Amino acid sequence: MTMKGSFMVVSLGLGGTALLAVVVAAVARRSFLGRIESLRRSLEKAPKALATRADLPSEVLTLARRLGACDDGVGRLVRLTQSGEMWLRPGSKPLAFKAEQAIAAGEVGFLWRAWLIMTAGVSMQVIDYTVGGKAGLECRLLGALPIIRMSDSDTMFRGEAMRYLAELMWNPDALLLNRQLDWRVINARTLVVATGGGTRRCQVRLILDDAGDLIGIEADDRPRQDGRIVSNCPWFGRGGDYRTIGGRRIPTQAEVGWLLNGIEFIYWRGRVDSWSLKV
């Protein structure tokens, strides 16, 4: 075979490999998008709450009214968009992100979809969810190459359910409508909300300021994965810059972090760019 012929064979081989890689990436991306769409449809089909709960402590009712929660008996789905920065580990550089989220008011359920800018022209797509009692987290480079995929487990559900509880500040109607939530009053500025049973049981403390606004969340034992090790760690969040949107008062600025060896590690800081209710 001549040198020219050998070059052509190598070129064709490389071209075929590149084409195969493009096809595989396209198939993986399409499969990922299909799963996201399936989760979205399932969340939207979740049963709606039929009426306001009659067993709520007065402190919870007061908070719900302050946030503008509606008790017309119609379950809703919150839709919001966010932008901000995330840190993958202590000391790492911040990554800009944009996200969209849907949160159920009548049950513990949400779907968060985010795009993180890794470097110029390279992004990572993330989905975080609890839908139909199943929870998961998945990250894909360029929406195709799997980086992280955590399947449903009791530990995974606890972590994602705790996120739902913490985000009640963006989901005021759930305070009145969600019968999967159990409430306990510690004092005028601290409410405990819990959900799940058995090994899925979890709770979060909601912290109020003197005016009665929900400004923070705390948990002592949210599951955190570090490499292959999962351990329960203190977790916290803060919200502020309240604004009235769609008849609800919500914090438009927030940050979330872990308490690692007594030191705060903020891993998410963002703002709400849009917020709406779907009946």
Q: Characterize the main sheet.
A: 13 strands, antiparallel
CATH architecture field: Clam
The N- and C-terminal alpha carbons lie at a distance of 71 Å
Strand order of the largest sheet: 6-5-4-3-2-1-13-12-11-10-9-8-7
Strand content: over 45%
Task: Explain this structure.
The chain is α+β, with helices and mostly antiparallel strands. It has one domain (7-278): outer membrane lipoprotein receptor (LolB), chain A (Clam). It has helices at 3-44, 58-66, 154-166, 173-177; strands at residues 77-86, 95-104, 110-119, 122-131, 134-141, 145-150, 182-187, 190-195, 202-208, 214-226, 229-245, 248-260, 263-278. The mean pLDDT is 90.
What key attributes describe this structure?
about 280 residues, alpha+beta, 4 helices, globular
Give me a quick take on this structure.
The chain is α+β, with helices and mostly antiparallel strands and 279 residues long.
List the helices and strands and how they pair.
Elements lengths: L2 H42 L13 H9 L10 E10 L8 E10 L5 E10 L2 E10 L2 E8 L3 E6 L3 H13 L6 H5 L4 E6 L2 E6 L6 E7 L5 E13 L2 E17 L2 E13 L2 E16 L1
Antiparallel strand pairs: 1-2, 1-13, 2-3, 3-4, 4-5, 5-6, 7-8, 8-9, 9-10, 10-11, 11-12, 12-13
